[in-house]
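Justification of resources, computational component.

The compute hours requested in this renewal are based largely on the per-chain cost of generating structure records like the one below. Each record pairs the submitted sequence with a full structure-token output. That output is archived, and it is also reused by downstream analysis tasks.
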Amino acid sequence: MTIQIPDDLARNLSGIAAAENKTVEQLAIDQLRSLLETPTSPEELLRAIRAIPHPSPPLVDDLDASIADSRLH
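The structure output for this chain reads:
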């Protein structure tokens, strides 16, 4: 199956995949599988939550700056 996605999304996926030492295809398959699996126990739910990628420090800095900026206005 081939899925066409916008270039900016492809770049973001490439960055996430590289950070996880995976190919874009493997990252996509893993994420799609996680969406289709239904956690049936607290342990499985916790495992699914821990599998969510964490934002990078620059993204956190951008979010903090946006929050601070909104408070000034």
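The helical segments are 7-19, 24-36, 42-50, 57-72. The chain has one domain: 7-72.
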